[in-house]
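Q: Convert this sequence to structure tokens.
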Amino acid sequence: MKKIISLALSLLFVFGMTTCAFAASDNGSYTVTNPYEGIDWGEIQTYKTALHTHTNASDGDITLKENIERHVECGFDIVANTDHGTVNYSWEYENPNKFIHSFLKLIGRNEGELVYLGKSGSFDNGISYELEERNGDDFLVLDNGKDIMRVPYGIENNAVSVNAHVNSWFVDYHDNSITTYVDALSGVQKAGGICVINHPGEYSKARYEIRSANAYNLDEFQYWYHVNKWAKLLSKYDCCLGIDVNSKGDSRTRFDRILWDILLERFADNGQNVFAICSSDAHQLNKIDTGFVYALMPEKTSSALRDSLSSGQFFAASHCLGNPDELVEIYTALEELYGESELSDKVKAAAFEMDEKATAIESGEADADDDIGITYKVLDDDGYCISETEPMITSVTVDEAEDTISIESENALIVRWISNGKLIATTRSDEAVFDLNDYSDELGSYVRAEVFGEGGVIYTQAFLLDSAAKAGTSEVVDKGFFDFGVLDFLVGTVGNWADIIGRAVRNIFR
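A:
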């Protein structure tokens, strides 16, 4: 009997210790890789930055002078001109790529004479300026005391490619031949620059999807192929920071946050990050202030900008949202946390309009076209911000002792917390503390945040969870993937047409 009691007590003790061990594991500390670590939020400067814009030196409708004038009016601190196949060397004098400019002019893809800034002058809005050089960087100095820095060597590579646009900065590199992603990324890496994959939804053809559930569905070959293609490129070329997730009003990129989460999940499972930018890709004046980044820098220099982008110490931001499911989640949260308002009604109206059009397309009553991407936006028809406020993140704090991520912001209402592609929680912006232990059953390998206010949305870069322990443990590219190279544009095109034909056939027999 003593032996039985002793054994029972021993088992109870072991079971109790095991239970405690599991409890500690479930609620133990996470190791969080914080891209904003080391920032002194009281000292750091935030610079509104345009990384992707066009002029009539390639296929834009506006001159460089008109382009810069609008950026001045919209409060930008840093601007990159990234014409197709055209390295930007100066704002002072003409420097088009004669081959690209002549070809586009021949086919009617650019308009008017080139107009640059000269050494000094005035814009049509009456603001006077001078160009000056400081420590190797070019600045446009305005008569109101403000200035704008030019990003050196901005370009959109693969000008004559049909499916592989890549923006790069900081190195004098271009190739006028028919090129692929590999050509551009390897060229930029060899030259020592950094780059990003532009508007991926354009090439995967996700821009033509109607519902989020269908976009980047890995059961479909076209999406499986493109996810693996971009994952392979990101893993091979360190110069490539990541992807553009919201550009030009978010019509064609409205599902590219789904792609970002898929890539993040793969790379975070391997202890790596994938950064996201927003851009305007502006070919017209009214697109200039649609998307941008807030670069966090100790000073306004091109070297500091490069460090900011390379380390992920920046926020992506947009004045537009075109994903109907995100908008439903946003207006629902606004109503739950603040009650119905003019803002929640506006977001709801945009979501309903999208749903009505999607339903009409599915029933065959309307044709699918680019206009499916109806957006919630805070820009008027001329492209000026009509909201008096833009949301701004003022600090990010990771407390590993408490397992929390905290965000302080201005002009914001809600913060959406996302992990492995799922919305985990939505908090008020004035209560934006995310306790990892509260959601341990739902967390994947990363968490990222989206801060929403009347003036738009800001995306943080991802916070990786226990990344050091996962480094090198997972493959980011599926076995069996084969890169079709320059012919991979056929993958998205065939998939898109198969979907259109399938929908037409279903409507016939409905």
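Confidence is low (pLDDT under 50) at residues 1-27.
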